[in-house]
Structures are given as C-alpha cells and as structure tokens.
Amino acid sequence: MTAAVRMKLLVTGGAGYIGSVCAARLVGAGHEVVVLDNLCTGHADAIPAGCRFVPGEVAEAGPLLAEGFDGVLHFAARSLVGESMTDPQRYWWGNVVASVRLLDAMTEHGIGRLVFSSTAATYGEPQSVPITEDDATRPTNPYGATKLAIDHAITSYAAAHGLAAVSLRYFNVGGAFDRHGERHTVETHLIPLVLQVALGQRDKITIFGDDWPTADGTCIRDYIHVTDLADAHELALESAQPGCHRVYNLGNGEGFSVREVIETCREVTGHPIPAEVAGRRPGDPAVLIASSERARADLGWKPERAELSVIVADAWDFARRKV
Ligand code: UFG
Q1: Cα 216-218-221 angle, rounded to 5 deg
Q2: Ligand 1 centre and the CA of 190: distance in Å?
Q3: In Å, how far are 20, 49, 120, 150, 202 from 23, measured between CA atoms?
Q4: Is the CB of 3 under 6 A from ligand 1?
Q5: How far apart are alpha carbons 113 and 18 in whole angstroms?
Q6: Which atom of ligand 1 lies nearest, measured to the CA of 281?
Q7: What pLDDT score does 282 carry?
Q8: pLDDT recorded at residue 82
Q9: Which of 71, 171, 227, 272 has the CB geometry, 3.0–4.6 Å to 251, for a possible disulfide?
C-alpha cells in the first residue's frame, strides 16, 4: 500500500512481532515512523530499517510525543493469557495504566489519531460463532480484561477529546513478513511450537485436550496472516474519524482445529511432527471464529494471504531462516 497522506507516526511495541511487521509496512508506504519499545519482550534487531528507535516506556511517552506526531499505533503490551492469570499486576500496570498515560499524553500534545491492538480475548467464551463486534464482551482472563478496559478508556477519550480511534481485535495471528516473524523467548503459540518440532528443537507437540465439543475434539481457531493484519492497520489509520472510536474484528472467518493446524504443518514441512494429547489448557475457549464483515465493509479490508497453508509456509520460511 502507498500512503494517501504521509504521516509522522509513533509505533509502540515496534520491536515485537506484529508491531515490527506493521512498522516495516508503514515505512514502505512512505510514512515517517518512530518506534518506542522497552525491549522487555521485543528484539532490537527486529526494528525495521528506516525507523527511528527510541528505547523507553509507554507510560513515559509524554516528552517524545511533545515533538509532535500525526498518530500513534499502540502495540506494546503484555499478551500472554497464562501469565496474566498468575501475574495480573503486570497486566493492569503494564497494559492499562501505561495506556491511560499514553492517552493523557496524546491529549496533552494534541495527537488526534490512534490505532490500538485489541484482542479476541475481550469476548471470552463466545455465545455463538462467528463473533461480531456487537457480541457480549466477557473476558475470561486478566489479559482480555485489561485490553477491554483500554478499549473502554479509548471510547471515553474519543468522546471527550475528539480522538479519532480504532481498536482492532486480532484473532490468531501467524505468518511472517520479510525478516519479521514470531520469536518469543517463551513460546506458547501453536504454529511456532509445531514448527519447532519440524526443526528438531522439540520432540513433539502437545495437544491441549481432544475432548472439546468440536468435530475432532480439539480447539478451533481463526488464523490470520500478519501482513493482512498490517494492511488493516493502514486502512484503520486512514479512515479514523475525530470523536469516534470504532472496533473491528480481524480474522478470516474460517476455523481450523489444532489437529488440522498440525496436519497443515506436516504438509508444508514434510516432517512427521509427532503429537500427543494432554489435558485442556485453562482459559481456552473451544471455538473462536471472527466475523470481519464490518472491517471489510467499512475499511475495504480484503485479506490476501488467507489460506492456512500460506500462513504456515511463511512462518516456516521465517523459522528456518533463524536456525
Ligand atoms: N495449543 C495446543 N498446544 C500447544 C499450544 C497451543 O494444543 O502447545 C492449542 C491451544 O490450546 C489453542 C490453540 O492451540 O486451542 C491455539 O493456541 P495459541 O496459544 O496459539 O493461541 P490462543 O488461541 O490461545 O491465543 C490467541 C491469541 C491471544 C488471544 C487469544 C484469545 O494469541 O492473544 O487467542 O483467546 F488472547
């Protein structure tokens, strides 16, 4: 995508997986990008070429914002469901308090445009699938609760201060772009873990439960390619309207079971990938599938790398490159 208008943008969390892909694509579209990241989970070498890097905390972004920006894309966050259950203060301080301070600094310095990384975890156990943005938000873990709290804060700041804001609720993100992919120090996500088996870095993949109420008994998720997600951020940034906070789900509207994901990884890698079944993981909903009709209709968003095999193949290229 080429930007209609060149903007000066702050990308918080631009050293992380999704933040670095989005920052790289924003630079490619012609924007001026400044990355703010404390590197607690991100990697300095993931910060895209062409970005200015400012090490630091989101909660202390005020002096940086004082230099003037057209908008902020706020990715920096703690994002592990399990960790949020055992260490909630890290999530309430690191996600909510830091984000409110960011909103205050944006208000103070007249920065009127925000795109925020929200999550499917704001919905909790869905009443029905696909999940729409009008469905009930009943998060089942502190991670989802903190993201929902920030969404509420953004709504009130938009109404009171004229902020043009969009929250994007990601479902299960995968794939890679260029040299930017998923590499968490503690990996918990299914696709990178399965690919670690194919690389010989672990013996087998553990399936968390095969007694779920689904066709093959394993959990179903909606996988979206990180570059399609990045496109949605650019569209959201351009379409944001002052005084308005809009929320969009981002997924492909199709669910794949854990077993189907593992099978796709076998096909892509040519590796047998041994799997064993263990008990359910606490906090997992059985099925999460997004309705992204609103994003398609309002933003004109159209995913281009929707097939699971493409998402896995791009993640595999990235995983092999690191070895
Ligand atoms: N899974 C396994 N074995 C593993 C890892 C995962 O069976 O070793 C299963 C999980 O139980 C789940 C599915 O694979 O059923 C996907 O798990 P991930 O950890 O890859 O992703 P989640 O669905 O748990 O998490 C995603 C986002 C979160 C978001 C959440 C909403 O990554 O940010 O959806 O529920 F909060």
Answers
A1: 115
A2: 6
A3: 5, 9, 22, 22, 31
A4: no
A5: 19
A6: 11
A7: 83
A8: 86
A9: 171
> Got the DSSP string for 110-177?
T--EEEEEEEGGGTBS-SSSSB-TTS--B-SSHHHHHHHHHHHHHHHHHHHH--EEEEEEE-EEE--B
Contact by Cβ (8 Å): 206, 278: yes
Predicted model pTM: 0.97
The predicted structure's pLDDT at residue 323: 59
Length of the chain: 323
One-letter amino acid at 131 equals I
Does the CB atom of residue 315 touch ligand 1 within 6 A?
Answer: no
Q: What number of CA atoms fall less than 13 Å from residue 12's CA on the CB side?
A: 29
Instruction: Report the catalytic residues.
Output: 143
Which of 139, 138, 100, 132 shows the shortest CA–CA distance to 116?
100
- Distance between Cα 267 and ligand 1 center (Å): 21
The CB of 190 under 6 Å from ligand 1? The reply is yes
Report the sign of the C-alpha dihedral through residues 248, 250, 252, 254, in that order: negative
Give buried/exposed letters for 276-297 (b at 16+ CB in 10 A, else e).
Answer: eeeeeeebbbbbbbbbbebbee
Please choose from 117, 168, 201, 258 the residue to mutate so as to test ligand 1's pocket, defined by most ligand atoms within 8 A of CB: 258
